[in-house]
Amino acid sequence: MIPKLHYISQGNSPKEHLDNIQKACSSGSELVQLRLKNISEKKCLKLATEAREITSHFQTRLIINDYYKIAKAIKADGVHLGKTDCCPLEARKHLYTWQIIGGTANTLQDCETLISKQVDYISLSPFRHAVTKGNIFKVLGLNGYNEIIEALKTETPIIGFGGINTKDVTAILETGISGIAVSDVITKNFDVIRTFNQLLKASSTKELRHTFK
Questions:
Q1: pLDDT tens digit string along 42-51?
Q2: φ and ψ of 154, to 5 deg
Q3: CB-based contacts of 194, cutoff 8 Å, min separation 6
Q4: Residue range(s) defining the domain that contains residue 145
Q5: Are the CB atoms for 128 and 139 separated by under 8 Å?
Q6: What is the CATH number of the domain that holds 21?
Q7: pLDDT digits (tens, 9 = 90+) for 76-115
Q8: How many domains, the chain?
Q9: Where is 64: in which H helix or E strand?
């Protein structure tokens, strides 16, 4: 089962990424993604190893962004692949069977492609932010999420991402989105993780009650 809240690491230096991962873990995050860009594989391996030590201590799941061979080497819980990263089917050949693969999507077609490549979850963005990695994608908002979820009719968990704050959670989950990924809002205040967790779990409890009525 994929946790409903993903913290995507941020920092002005590799050390800040690790410090922020530790803060996220100690604040109750069930899953963190180590997202390091423009860094050598050797340095990424060192940092990922340290991140694995931190997350293991807190029994938090660790996802490595992009570097699937490193994810296998440190026995991370999985890897997240961007649209220009390795094909999920290729990455799957190198990973342990228990490791999960997530993928980035910005459109319905992206989602369909990832589902055909047997990813374990999809990060669908942007909910609010229009600029990602220097490219401009259509802001999806609640209407975009509704349309894509309705069209997909998939059991693959869809995680919302892109400028999401605590006020958005309830409405986002009502679209059928499984959970959310957050970076900026959490990095600015790690105490907000508790609020996110409460909102996400309260909603899932409500859904269960409705199901079993």
A1: 999 999 999 9
A2: -115, 155
A3: 27, 28
A4: 5-211
A5: yes
A6: 3.20.20.70
A7: 999 999 999 999 999 999 999 999 999 999 999 999 999 9
A8: 1
A9: strand 61-65
